[in-house]
């Protein structure tokens, strides 16, 4: 084969400018979509957080009704997310953490908005930082032990779901303290292919909140 022919074949094998531009545009659109979805999730998590902070000021019916509405909004958001991710492996990779976090919130497996937010954004470092701060707050009496236990279980579960290695002590703590709903969530969400099972659990929990 003559050198010019070799060069011509090499050139034809390279992606043309339009292909490069399309790939770049695809990444930009994915990034914008992810940012948009994160902002929507942030707003819903803020709603939950505000609700918990104002709980003492609301009567029981008002609190339950507002929480139910927020969970329903999360369910709708999760349905939209499933449609967006359908058949797009790039988005599945990008948004899988967000989907699991939302499912954890809907099923009431996770109750701490900030932990759900960090789980959704795949921030294991910040989750570990929060856990360290909680350890300090517990030692100086700034954090109720019951709340500490609940949030530590949520954080450790989130870390495990994000592929982080847990210490033997953390694994033992999780096994001893995970509640029934959290254990069920952990079981059915072992892989992303179990999404429908997780959603079935979530739907069951949402229906329970309506009763």
From TrEMBL:
Keywords of this entry: Coiled coil
Protein name, per record: Protein LZIC
One Pfam match: ICAT
Molecular-function GO term, any one: beta-catenin binding
Subunit-structure text: Does not interact with CTNNB1.
Similarity section: Belongs to the CTNNBIP1 family.
Record's keyword annotation contains Coiled coil: yes
Domain Beta-catenin-interacting ICAT: residue ranges: 134-208
Superkingdom of this protein's organism: Eukaryota
Coiled coil segments of this chain: none
Organism: Mustela putorius furo (European domestic ferret)
Underlying gene: LZIC
Keyword Transport: no
Gene Ontology CC terms, in alphabetical order: beta-catenin destruction complex; cytosol; nucleus
BP term (GO), one: negative regulation of Wnt signaling pathway
Segments for region (Disordered): 1-30
